[in-house]
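Sequence in, structure out. Go.
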Amino acid sequence: MDYVYDKERMSALLYQIVAQQAGDKAELWLRQKAEVWQQSGALQQFNLTFSAIPRFIGKNQIIIDSTQEAALKAIVPGFSVQGWPADRVARAWWLLQLPVADKTAYVKQLETLFDAAEMNELAALYGALPLLAFPEEWTLRTAEGIRSNIGTVQEAIMLNNPYPALYLSEAAWNQLVMKAIFTDKQIGRIIGLDERANAALAAVLTDYAHERWAAGRTVNPMLWRLVGPFVNETSFSDIKRVWNSENTIEREAAALACAQTTYAPAIELLRERPALKAEIDADVLNWNLLSEKLN
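Output:
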């Protein structure tokens, strides 16, 4: 399957967003380039335009209204361009102009762009992963990007991007989450965090926490969000350690982890602090709010 969503609606909406915020001159340039590309089909023209977009569209931060936000997510759940630089949105739109009738040619062209891309181009390509045709073709590229040491590229893959949760294997997904934690990314902005939680990841994270504690270092409280559903007799001692922390946010994280599990001792532990349990039951305390406190 090429596109797994309504590509025409997405293309029209992205173009509207770029045109509204980049100005008439930039919109005219983009429209003319699209006309030339449609007439010539020359890949060199396509690649040159992809590279030139920042010079003509600019890098102003895109601000979309709630209607546009909802429309984007109605087409591709979880996808948004809120806060993106204008050139990244334009590049995402430009990628949608590639023909998909020949899958081999399409994949080859995208691979060429990835291979030749500088940092901002890579961020645009990875940010557009949810929009690319033949989504199953980009898992290895995504895994490669996760191993990147470029923060902008890492964030384009990890944060507010629905592609990894939908298509990565468990091993690659776990690598993404671990890399996000290692590099102090905002864990709460990873889409699919709860849905893709798994016992293997929880075990690796508890080992990581032990290493941090042994070195006298702190542990990101959001880590316990991924351990909570898999608390057992081994990891329960870790939860109790965090539960008894002098740090309020850590204690709240332990309480939230206890609220996620069916492990009886953890459920009983949460009952010892009825005020915290009441806040969780009333949704006054949740992982999203805890994430906001941390950032």
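Check: The radius of gyration is 22 Å. The first helix runs from residue 7 to 22.
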